[in-house]
């Protein structure tokens, strides 16, 4: 309009002094709508006249910006007054909504009033600043119930209606105030956006305060709100991310685990945030010495589950820096603890006597003893947490290394630390470090000989039988031997593996023999150790050599095979015989099937699961899970699955047709049960079909007749 053009011209001429003091000095409202801006639920989609910006024009001074902001806020308040004065809100609502809002605001419950105010703001946010202000006042109330209800509603309102999805909000000073052609509508929208940005920041501050509330439920809600806002809107994402990541260090394990899950969920939806998240984690938790070990643990298990791709080179490099920096600090802490334990154990060992009864403490002495025991237990928990942290760091290194492109000098500086871990500490940590060293050796062949020496030495570690990482260890061993091109070294490994199988548990021995069979199939020249006699003039095999290349295994036969052919476990005997006969050994998908616990589980008479019963079901939402292998071959990188992963399978002891099966149809470890039930049928005849006694019914609850056969079948006869 002409009035609008005139006003714009006056503003343009008087920008340096900016003499407009009040919204009354601006142009009069239009007679038709009496509003500068038409009501719109999506204020950021309001079409405004285009502005002409001149880069040569000097930006306004701070005082000019303050005066323009005051003028814009007066325009915004006047716009809201006109909206209220002419009852346009009532016209924009339907009849039912109008009556609902009127009754609720006057005599409604707290929840109803919050809903009514939210409905009013949604109609036209620019023209309902009063309702939005009432909601923000409720958010800042000290009453927890009222504040939580208001925070939840305002959070949903911000995410669904008020915040734009494609950009962040701008402060008034960041708007093009010096542009030509700015109208009152521009100033109203800019003032509203500035006020909305400040309200949103106030909301986040309240949420931050509530995230430290004594009630766990309140803190859980706030953590969920942080992730919801991060997932949907870009506004204040840096502050929200810091608040979310900070909850990884919450004292409640449940809440820390929840925060870890939400961070990974966020990265699945917004993969481009990986580098920002890793950097934030590094700044908040890993760079502070005062961070508790539990917080560091949840931080590490969050980082090592980030899914990387070939495009995430920068993120993978940053992860390696984080892991190695923390790795060295953790190693120093473990060494200091070991030195303290050694110093503290020296004087107490002298005064201890053998066979003495434990001393009883009462009164103050009992209190001191209880405190000492609690401190000792705390130290043990910290030491256990240190081992878990070491495994978590190594797991992350193994997952990030294939995607990183680190300089050789940087990599060489860290390799020595990893070798140090491979020779000490918890054996699970040793396995993870060996896996990492094998990956490094692929890209850095110079450390190959040192890696194979370390791997060769680990076979004699007495903790190998107690570790829960047997399958992982055998997979590392298989991958290392498969990629090794030096035949004498592979032969030395095979001899030592067979030696270890002689005194290891059956589950490890069965997996190791299967691994040996796969290696020998890939290298047929290895069968010479079973067929060709030893050369008396050749140097003798030396078990004391640290380097397997110089153990002279190529001049020795596999004498260990003769003892394994007489092993007590039928599966091991059968597998060794197949290797000697150069037959293909069936794959082993689960080491647990060859354990003593699995053998004893047969007597529970539970029907086993089938081999194809949902083999690909994941446990939880994490994609970083052990692979389930139904069939294996020497061409795969992973030879064995982890313990209790996948279907168990096996003989059904609830079936009455067990004795009718042929011995050739039975697995070696199931032939004992087949022989037992055949002997029972022969000895008992028709007795097995008679009704069992009450005593037998208490002993077993199936129809196999096992209870009655126990007292009549001799052990020697069953084993024949």
């Amino acid at each position: 309009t002409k009035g609008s053009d005139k006003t714009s011209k006056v503003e343009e001429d008087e920008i340096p002094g900016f003499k407009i003091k009040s919204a009354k000095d601006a142009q009069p409202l239009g007679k038709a709508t009496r509003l500068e801006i038409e009501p719109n639920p999506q204020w950021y989609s309001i079409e405004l006249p285009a502005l002409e910006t001149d880069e040569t024009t000097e930006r306004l001074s701070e005082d000019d910006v303050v005066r323009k902001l005051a003028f814009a806020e007066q325009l915004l308040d006047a716009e809201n007054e006109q909206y209220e004065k002419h009852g346009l809100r009532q016209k924009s609502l339907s009849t039912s909504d109008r009556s609902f809002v009127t009754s609720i605001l006057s005599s409604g419950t707290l929840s109803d009033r919050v809903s009514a105010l939210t409905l009013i703001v949604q109609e036209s946010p620019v023209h309902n600043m009063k309702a939005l202000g009432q909601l923000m006042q409720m958010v800042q109330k000290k009453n927890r119930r009222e504040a939580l209800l208001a925070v939840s509603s305002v959070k949903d309102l911000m995410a669904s209606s008020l915040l734009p999805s494609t950009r962040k909000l701008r402060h008034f000073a960041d708007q093009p105030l010096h542009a030509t052609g700015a109208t009152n509508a521009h100033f109203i929208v800019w003032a509203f956006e500035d006020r909305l940005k400040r309200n949103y920041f106030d909301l986040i501050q309240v949420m931050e305060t509530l995230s430290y509330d004594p009630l766990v439920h309140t803190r859980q809600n706030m953590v969920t709100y942080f992730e919801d806002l991060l997932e949907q809107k870009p506004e204040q994402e840096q502050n929200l991310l810091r608040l979310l990541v900070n909850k990884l260090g919450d004292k409640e394990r449940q809440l820390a685990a929840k925060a870890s899950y939400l961070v990974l969920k966020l990265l699945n939806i917004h993969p481009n945030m990986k580098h920002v998240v890793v950097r934030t984690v590094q700044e908040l938790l890993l760079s502070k010495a005062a961070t508790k070990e539990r917080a560091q643990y949840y931080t590490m298990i969050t980082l090592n589950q980030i899914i990387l791709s070939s495009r995430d080179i920068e993120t993978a490099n940053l992860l390696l820096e984080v892991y190695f920096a923390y790795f060295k600090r953790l190693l120093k802490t473990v060494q200091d603890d070991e030195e303290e334990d050694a110093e503290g154990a020296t004087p107490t060992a002298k005064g201890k006597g053998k066979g003495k009864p434990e001393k009883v403490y009462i009164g103050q002495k009992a209190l001191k003893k209880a405190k000492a025991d609690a401190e000792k237990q705390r130290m043990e928990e910290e030491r256990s947490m240190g081992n878990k942290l070491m495994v978590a760091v190594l797991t992350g290194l193994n997952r990030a290394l294939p995607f990183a492109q680190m300089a050789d000098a940087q990599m060489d500086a860290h390799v020595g630390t990893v070798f140090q871990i491979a020779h000490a500490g918890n054996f699970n940590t040793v396995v993870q470090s060996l896996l990492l060293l094998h990956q490094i050796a692929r890209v850095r062949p110079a450390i190959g000989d040192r890696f194979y020496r370390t791997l060769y030495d680990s076979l004699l570690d007495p903790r190998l039988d107690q570790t829960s990482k047997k399958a992982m260890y055998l997979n590392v061993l298989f991958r290392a031997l498969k990629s090794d091109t030096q035949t004498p070294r592979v032969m030395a490994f095979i001899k030592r593996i067979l030696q270890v199988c002689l005194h290891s548990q059956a589950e490890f021995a069965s997996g190791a023999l299967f691994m040996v069979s796969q290696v020998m199939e890939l290298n047929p020249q290895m069968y010479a150790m079973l067929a060709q006699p030893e050369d008396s003039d050749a140097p003798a095999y030396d078990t004391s050599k640290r380097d397997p290349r110089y153990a002279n295994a190529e001049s020795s036969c596999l004498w260990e095979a003769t003892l394994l052919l007489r092993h007590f476990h039928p599966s091991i005997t059968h597998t060794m015989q197949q290797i000697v006969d150069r037959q293909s050994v069936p794959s082993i998908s689960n080491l647990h099937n060859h354990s003593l616990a699995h053998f004893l589980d047969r007597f529970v008479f539970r029907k086993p699961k089938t081999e194809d019963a949902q083999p690909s079901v994941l446990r939880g939402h994490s994609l970083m899970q052990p692979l389930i292998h139904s069939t294996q071959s020497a061409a795969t990188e992973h030879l064995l699955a982890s313990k209790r992963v996948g279907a168990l399978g096996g003989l059904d002891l609830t079936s009455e047709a067990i004795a009718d099966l042929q011995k050739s149809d039975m697995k070696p470890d199931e032939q004992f049960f087949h022989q037992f039930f055949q002997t029972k049928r022969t000895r008992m005849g028709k007795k097995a079909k008679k009704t069992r006694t009450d005593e037998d019914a208490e002993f077993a609850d199936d129809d196999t007749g096992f209870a009655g056969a126990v007292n009549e079948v001799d052990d020697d006869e069953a084993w024949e």
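The chain has a mean pLDDT of 77. DSSP finds 29 helices and no strands in the chain.
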